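idk why but the lab printer keeps eating my pages so im just putting this in chat instead. protein + flavin-adenine dinucleotide:
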Amino acid sequence: MNFIVIGAGVSGVTAAHLLTNTGHQVEIVDCRGHIGGNCYDEKQGQVTVHKYGPHLFHTNDKSVWNFLSRFTDWIPYSHKVVADTARGRISIPYSLLTEEQIGARLSDAEIRELIFVQYSEKQWGVSWEQLPDAIRNRIPARRDNSDDRYFTDHFQGQPKDGYTALFQRMLEGIPVRLGVPRNEWRKLACDYDHVIYTGKIDEYFDCVYGKLPYRSLRFEHEKSCQRLPHAVINQCNDLPFTRIYDHAYFLGEEPDETVITREFPQAHDDSNEPFYPMPFGAGMELYQKYKELARQEKNTLFLGRLATYSYLDMWMAVAQAMVKLKQQKWIS
Ligand SMILES: Cc1cc2nc3c(=O)[nH]c(=O)nc-3n(C[C@H](O)[C@H](O)[C@H](O)COP(=O)(O)OP(=O)(O)OC[C@H]3O[C@@H](n4cnc5c(N)ncnc54)[C@H](O)[C@@H]3O)c2cc1C
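predcted complex ->
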């Protein structure tokens, strides 16, 4: 069989590789000028810059870890985050270490107020009261130890040569077309038995039921001879950005000049990227309608964050592609 894969993010790249490896003919296209989707990184001077925000790999899924390890060595990396708050700079998630830094034991309500309320309001652009329970209840539990790693998964690391290089290796021998205008794939698809679609699901159906809500980001990158004292510093305060980070930490680089980025959440429109689906409330209701249309599509498989309208970490996107391609019996 032959397949056209729309989108060269981790979902599309994984699908393209698995299908090719099983003997299918595959072409992959992306409207951006590069592969990697939001995981894309590139060298700027001596620093590997995560163009669409820091990507830290973590999973408890051994099969995903082993699969990706065929294409990369890993640099051991345990992600740590601090937050600037009304009680000073503290480690998050909240742990016994945070308690030592603050010099007091906070109640759950106090932790929520200190770390989550302002941050979430900035992230989603609405007041805490208007946020759905799905977000308000997503507060990580306090840790009854001093483990200050952000993720506690068994497998954690950064691909030694970066994410773009990892995906390039997965795409070896597969034709890739970049900079393809957003609707162009529809013409190309006529020549293929199947479409693997990883773009926005509402866009696939020409937004017949209206546009799904997404949240976007604006990044302010700045070259600096001054390193940040931490990889990522969340801003749980009234500054207009949610976090600031120093890219040199992610691969343990020691450049003369680093790149520092401030991340500003903003509304999504046609001029920016749909970084976060908003699968709750009205967004979820609308998605159910598109999901039903997707179920009726005969020759298209919907994969990834935008097409399944869900918050997938990288490992989940890989796992989802593996599972869904197996369900179709396209791979074994
Ligand atoms: C700021 C941020 C930080 C993150 N940090 C982490 C992290 O630390 N760890 C982690 O595990 N995950 C993280 N994630 C999640 C991670 O980015 C996703 O798991 C991953 O990008 C999902 O890949 P995808 O292929 O489904 O989607 P995407 O990366 O969005 O790729 C979709 C691709 O399809 C292309 N496309 C869309 N429509 C069309 C069209 N019509 N025609 C052609 N091409 C099209 C897009 O250009 C894009 O390249 C983060 C996400 C964000 C936004």
